[in-house]
Amino acid sequence: MTAKNIDDDAREPHDPLLATPWAQLAATSAPSGSVASQAGTQNHRHPANKAKRSDNGGMQSTHGVMADIIAAPTTQASVAMEGIKEYILRENLQPGQALPTESRLCAALGVSRSSVREAVRTLVALDIVEVRHGHGMFVGRVSMRPMVESLVFRGRLHPGDDHQGLRDVVEVRATLDQALAPHVIEAWTGRDDEELDAIVEEMDAKAQAGLLFADEDRRFHLRMLEPLDNKLFRHLTDAFWAVHTLTVPLLGAPAPDDILKTVRAHRDMLAAARAGDIEAYRQATSQHYAPLLSALTTG
């Protein structure tokens, strides 16, 4: 048990969580007459509501902007969910770090235990919170797993639609690779990398044996994006790769010739990137996805 995840009945005298005016956020957000609306003093403002100057010189409320973007009915559970996210951001907590206990969240937010539990269940589903039974709540990995699961389900939801859902995913992945071409070329021109060379050789060996190489494919694409400053590119690519890999089995086994074509495309992508040839890189990227898109179109 970590110091932050203290026992429910052992509150610290100067608990920073309880000192945070979340009760005021609850009071201004919750429906009139609810427990949350009765908690705290109306005249205080949550730090998230602090006015800040916009680009055009006007004053905007951060909380107000978010309210405009996310228009949803406010419940005690939604207040609790936003409060937990605010706490993670304000305390700059990282994945794996402990969160306050359930009773401390209830007291700070002025909401019921059931509302906190409902909020936590939602945040767990979003991979923002992780619950370790017997140990408490922790910041989750905040990964793209929820998006992956949703897209995989979408791809399998209508089996009679000629794989339109899967085709959409593959087209988005291919478009992302094409869009990243200038960044990849800039990063890899004249650059040697034994790891990438080894990955391509592993692909080739498996293809010659009639085997698939999903793991090598993932490693190849993530390695190509590793030198890029924007790490979100890697996360998005990995997410779409996961969707791609989980749904492709719906098509059955690929033709041996298609497997060999895919290996050659990877080899050509690497060679073009090192040569600084963006057009050759884009052509190789198109060849990489061509067999699968053809199977999705004719299948």
Can you put this structure into words, describing what you see?
With 299 residues, the chain is mainly alpha-helical. The chain has two domains: 124 residues, Orthogonal Bundle (Arc Repressor Mutant, subunit A); 153 residues, Up-down Bundle (Four Helix Bundle (Hemerythrin (Met), subunit A)), CATH 1.20.120. Helices cover 61% and strands 5% of the residues. It has 15 helices and four strands. The chain has a two-stranded antiparallel sheet. A two-stranded antiparallel sheet has the order 3-4.
Please name the fourth-level CATH homologous superfamily of the largest domain.
Answer: GntR ligand-binding domain-like
Residue-averaged pLDDT: 78
Instruction: Say what the CATH topology of the largest domain is.
Output: Four Helix Bundle (Hemerythrin (Met), subunit A)
What is the succession of H and E elements? HHHEEHHHHEEHHHHHHHH
Range of helix content = 55-70%
Instruction: Enumerate the spans where pLDDT stays under 50 for 5 or more consecutive residues.
Output: 1-14, 21-62, 65-71
How many distinct domains?
2
Shape: elongated
Q: How large is the share of residues in beta strands?
A: under 5%
**Compute the gyration radius: what is it?**
25 Å
CATH architecture of the largest domain: Up-down Bundle
Strand order of the largest sheet: 1-2
End-to-end separation in angstroms reads 54 Å
Count of helical stretches: 15
The counted number of beta strands is 4
Class by alpha and beta content: mainly alpha
Q: What can be said about the biggest beta sheet?
A: 2 strands, antiparallel
User: Which oligomerization state do the chains in this entry correspond to?
Assistant: single chain
CATH class category label of the largest domain: Mainly Alpha
